[in-house]
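Quick start: read one record
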Amino acid sequence: MQKGWRYLALDLGAESGRAMAGTFDGERIELEEAHRFATGGTQVLNAMYWDVLRLYAECCSGIARAAALPGEPLCGIGIDTWGVDFGLLGSGDVLLGNPRHYRDHANDGMVERAFERMPRRQLFARTGLQMLQINTLYQLLGMQNQNSPLLDMAETLLFMPDLLRFWLTGEKNVEYTIASTSQMLNANTRQWDYELMQQMQLPSRMLGAVIGPGQRVGALRADVAAETGCPATPFYSVGEHDTASAVAAVPAQGGGWAFLSSGTWSLMGMELSAPVLTDEAAEADFTNEGGVCGTTRFLKNIMGLWLVQECRRRYAHEGHNYSYSQLTAMAEAAPAFGTMFDPDETCFMAPHNMVQAIALYCNNKGRKAPQGVGETVRSCLESLALKYRWTARKLQSLTQKPLHTLHIVGGGSQNRLLCQLAADATGLRVVAGPVEATALGSILLQTMGAGKVDTLAQARQIAAASATLEIFAPSGSQERWAEAEAQIYGNG
């Protein structure tokens, strides 16, 4: 058993959550899974919610199981989740209803509602964020549009990791990287934009203090410690937006690299020292999210493996319970350069039947719809790779920085077909791994908060030493990829 300091990362994604214990010996981190559980939304009366009390109970189970592992005791805990979603607390810190899921249709049309109150270009100049209807700003406008009484009752807004951390520690504040996904934070000051909230006619009294990642923020409450059998262990603010923690664990040194955090969503971008707020960035619909150690993650949110996840769910509904590896094998056997599409079309956000949605979209565009499982999944993967190509070219144009390497981290880095397609489409060298980048980044930020690691560069050296990496070199001609890009995205 490795000796050193053991930390716990509570890492909740949109499809699954995990409690990952990591032991740091001063040079590398050894990860051990203590608990894994499904997350996912719950549909009730045509609305989509998160079962946040169950997620809290799963976090407690993860802490208990990690505390019971043989070896070193826990000396730190951190938590991260997906972005944008939140809970509202009323008087006495009572939770006001279940938090809504970002794919809930109450957000439909709210981007346009926001533009009626503030022009698009001005909204981007203030917040630096991509205009996605899932953003917290539009969710609040959706609540207002439905005359929800909760907005009047709310005293505190906490994003999902902040809410869970509050219940675990009693500390009530908002971590910067998760707040940066809301479109209510000023991109330059990195604080709440109260003037924006006023112009949007939304209450700002519920917006609490913003803290940075890598700080100690209390410890487990006594009752939680007793319930889990874990001592009153220190809690650390990590990159509480899961992508921020994942990017902290990108095993890169120097410049010339981009990251792709690949999971339900694909978040592809570059780490910069300041936001990019140009008209060109606004037109390309890029986003500036908060990073760790004073950085900005300049990126594009791309629909990601949600496409494949939803196809898999449809096949299971029809009685075919394919594993992801089976789906990838069938895609690999399908013909290359089948029908491609823009994965970020709104019809793919929350369709009842993803397989049908893809076929219908292709038919409406006058393209041949993919036939069968293998062609459909390959169509999804090739379409993602093509969007990565477009995004890589835009990144270089918007930042005036060259790229030679794409680091793919997260669960999608295990999909060797997707990694090779990404290399082929972009012409970049692809480095795949670490798989558990978010948990690794969370633990690295805890070690920084505890004073055991000094710099982000040092943390990334530890990440490289702790992970198994695979290299994918570009193969084949760029000509067919260029033709497909021109067909779908034009020549701009």
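The chain has two domains: 5-237, 242-433+469-492.
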